[in-house]
Amino acid sequence: MDASIGPVERRRTFAIISHPDAGKTTLTEKLLLLGGAIQLAGEVKGKRDRRQTRSDWMNIERERGISVVTSVMTFEYGGTIFNLLDTPGHEDFSEDTYRTLTAVDSAVMVIDAAKGIEDRTRKLFEVCRLRDIPIVTFVNKLDRESRDPFDLLDEIEKTLALETAPMTWPIGRGRDFAGTYDIVNRTVRRLDLENEVTKVSGPEDPIIDTLTRPEAVALFREEMELIAGAANGFDRDAFREGHLTPVYFGSALRNFGVRDLIDAMAAYAPPPRPQQAESRLVEPDEAKMSGFVFKIQANMDPNHRDRIAFLRVCSGRLERGMKAKLVRTGKPIPLSSPQFFFAQDRLLADEAFAGDVVGIPNHGTLRIGDTLTEGENLVFRGVPSFAPEILRRIRLQDPMKAKKLKEALQQMAEEGVVQVFVPHDGSPAIVGVVGALQLDVLKERMQAEYSLPIDFETSRFSVCRWISSDDKLALETFIERHRGSMAADLDGAPVFMAPSAFELRYELDRAPAITASEIKDYQRRAAA
Ligand code: G4P
């Protein structure tokens, strides 16, 4: 890449969205290999016997073989710096995933060629759509029997309402799969020669006849004719606006087509985008540093009990040793050891630019949704909190440890592991989660980190909403009248709880001055 290109322009901050088993881990591994961030395959998220890995920090994750945590991996390829934000694949962790997607500028959608668009992919895609995040599609597992590529494109267009532009096309499928043809550049990449491309005159080029069975070549040529007649060409604006996805075919396992994908990310995916703060739009190349925390993670290293806040830099230059302002409290916070994360290592970050994600070790000063600046009172939007779908009371096996429990729960709530609601009537705290697996994580961490064995009891409430009103008196009256159903969240904001959705609706219908919300924006709250 041209050396005159500035630090912001050369950054790509993205996530991979996919249904479990589509190949996200394998693809991540191959991307990191290409970027030189790791030497050997199998080091990203070991499954089964290959488990000595970066995210190998929690028993629960090992047992279930899923990546529970969200983290970031930085690597460089061809002069472009990629920040890959790992989104947990498990459905239960949607909250974490949503937050992570607030910190990316583009996404790679991985589809299993035999399965097409699956449920989880669709949901994650919807989140991307809300923010108009451009998507590059990678159709994976072409080395196996797969569906007709036209069918897959059609499915993307129909189920996601997203236009497709095939950029490469498979030559043969399953056992006949011999490589891909690059529609734009008229080159062929052979399965057995992954790191090279051969220039050809077009789909009719005799070189292609030598690659696989004649029937497969004939089918490929027919398909190319169809494409010439019917498929969309790549339109960069439509892609950047999130209306069109370029589609690449390959096999992550065979490390095939991954180069096309990463080249496409470098060439087409947008550099760090401007970020919307409450007061104004913040441009990535502004001189002053700003950023927001989208993730807090404790215990990344079992030997050091540390807590890392992941900050997405939105503008300016973050310099090690600088003092930033934590807008929520107005207090300065020294950035003495910001860190970058690689496949397995963390390194001190001397400087970071818009698009970068740095880890900031802290002891609970930083929370999800916090904004850091060089002085301006900016508040970035859009790191949401969702009304939990499961509410449970905690039963402490040792009642003498109530105070410790309170502290531990507070920390878990600040990290976003669970939400904690303290009932106004003085009854024990209620924890709320979006997915049941979060409860297991909480139990395990309470035991491992605080030596607090806990159990869960059903609560008489099953739904809750944040409530507010422009009419202060109406709000106070509602709270007073429903005292037995009111609780305070981490920040003391009022939460109305009900035994069922029906009762929730019933009570709220009778109080038209009250606004009930399923989503709470961390930052709006912070500014309040
Ligand atoms: P995920 O993170 O999206 O859940 O998927 P992951 O990469 O773990 O891949 C799921 C399974 O699919 C793995 O097999 C993996 O080896 C396989 N896979 C990934 N990419 C390809 C591909 O391009 N072609 C083929 N044929 N298989 C692919 P597994 O047997 O479940 O796990 P493992 O024992 O191989 O780790």
Automatic annotation (TrEMBL):
It is found in: Cytoplasm. GO terms for biological process: regulation of translational termination. Its main location: cytoplasm. Gene3D superfamilies: P-loop containing nucleotide triphosphate hydrolases, Peptide chain release factor 3, domain III, Translation factors. This is Peptide chain release factor 3. Residues 9-273 form the Tr-type G domain. One of its GO terms (cellular component) is cytosol. It holds the Pfam family EF-G_D2. Increases the formation of ribosomal termination complexes and stimulates activities of RF-1 and RF-2. It binds guanine nucleotides and has strong preference for UGA stop codons. It may interact directly with the ribosome. The stimulation of RF-1 and RF-2 is significantly reduced by GTP and GDP, but not by GMP. GTP binds at residues 18-25, 86-90, 140-143. Belongs to the TRAFAC class translation factor GTPase superfamily. Classic translation factor GTPase family. PrfC subfamily. HAMAP family: Rel_fac_3. The keyword GTP-binding applies. Keywords: Cytoplasm, GTP-binding, Nucleotide-binding, Protein biosynthesis. The keyword Protein biosynthesis applies. Signal peptide: none annotated. InterPro entries: EF-G-like_DII, EFG_III/V, G_TR_CS, P-loop_NTPase, PrfC, RF3_C, RF3_dom_3_sf, RF3_GTP-bd. CDD domains: RF3, RF3_II, RF3_III. GO terms for molecular function: GTP binding; GTPase activity; guanosine tetraphosphate binding; translation release factor activity, codon nonspecific; translation release factor activity, codon specific.
